[in-house]
Write a structure and sequence with these properties.
heterodimer, A: 115 residues, SH3 type barrels, 5-stranded antiparallel beta sheet, B: alpha/beta, two-stranded parallel sheet, two-stranded parallel ribbon
């Protein structure tokens, strides 16, 4: 029917999400990059290990873990990537630039913990 | 090239055979050997390699420049492009053959964005084509994240202190494209004239677009 104003339809309360389907972090959450040194292929640069930043976005859609993909293990490994912002001053002591300059990066969920 | 231009263009002058000196290098041989083995095993056909080269060759900064110009001209498109860069580009017919996502980063009078891949050479290839050599080399990769303002100054872009510099390190599934600021004095420009202002470096974020007619620094 045209011209009819429809009420918003939100069915989130009616469905049960699969394990891992809902992101573990939300924009605004403070997270720390874990300090790990796995052997092999990994996609979190060393300069960010142990640094604390803020989640600015959950990246959609969910995607495979690059570090599993590097070994051909893709099936069932989809998870959440987060766009995380770190103050430059947090990453680089002695950083020269604006106080609000930021470093942003996408990090897979297995590398983040709540700070 | 000789500064004196007195020869005919009939191409009847003698010259040495145009050839590549020396034999193929170690990696040339390895590439050829691996390619032949993969074709021999039936994992893909030789034609598919040529096809993929054609795919890559068709991607150049001219594509990104047209998307930027459209975003400047059409606020609704700009909104869609910023909401989901991949969907916005796909709307224009730019396919994402490598299955990456795209985040478009808008430069404003308060924010300047710069992109880098510290781990390798992640780059928005579907929209810009192959990255420049300097983008893949360690000096840029190390310095863009630690002293971006110094790097920008070397490219000729002076970013005022009160403008926030945001460096996006592309390391996994996401690629980034900078939406540069539309320069002043271009209000009457056509879409194609606008696209001509947009360079590869301004979409990486190492440069800003000078107003038309401004003297080069």
């Amino acid at each position: 029917m045209t011209g009819q104003v429809l009420a918003p339809l939100d069915l989130r309360g009616d469905v049960v999400l699969a394990t891992g389907e809902a992101p573990g972090f939300e924009p605004g959450d403070t997270v720390r990059v874990m300090t790990r040194s796995p052997i092999g292929h990994y996609r979190v640069p060393r300069y960010l290990r142990g640094k604390t930043g803020d989640v600015v976005a959950v990246i959609r859609p969910m995607a495979v873990d690059n570090e599993e993909e590097g070994y051909g293990r893709n099936a069932g490994s989809k998870g959440h990537y987060y766009r995380v912002a770190f103050p430059m001053a947090e990453v680089w002591p002695g950083y020269v630039g604006g106080a609000t300059d930021q470093l942003l990066i996408e990090v897979f969920q297995t590398w983040l913990e709540r700070a | 090239m000789s500064a004196v231009h007195d020869h005919s263009h009939d191409h009847n002058h003698p010259h040495a055979e145009i050839t590549q000196d020396g034999g193929p290098g170690y990696y040339d041989l390895m590439t050829a050997a691996v390619t032949e083995l993969l074709v021999e095993r039936g994992l893909f056909e030789a034609g598919e390699i040529c096809r993929q080269i054609d795919v890559l060759d068709s991607r150049t900064p001219a594509l990104g420049a047209k998307a930027v110009a459209r975003a400047w001209m059409d606020p609704d498109f700009k909104r869609r492009l910023l909401a989901d860069g991949r969907v916005g580009c796909e709307e224009l017919g730019i396919s994402f053959y490598d299955d990456t996502q795209l985040i478009v980063l808008e430069n404003t009078e308060r924010v300047h964005n710069l992109i880098v891949c510290t781990l390798c050479s992640c780059y928005p290839r579907p929209v810009l084509g192959l990255p420049p050599d300097w983008y893949k080399l360690k000096p840029y990769r190390a310095r863009a994240i630690s002293e971006p303002r110094a790097v920008l100054a070397e490219f000729g872009a002076q970013i005022p202190d009160d403008v926030e510099v945001r460096v996006s390190d592309s390391t996994a599934i996401v690629r980034y494209l900078v939406l540069p600021r539309r320069p002043a004095g271009t209000e009457q420009f056509s879409e194609s004239e606008l696209a001509n202002l947009v360079t590869r470096d301004t979409m990486i974020g190492v440069a800003v677009i000078d107003p038309p007619g401004a003297p080069r620094q």
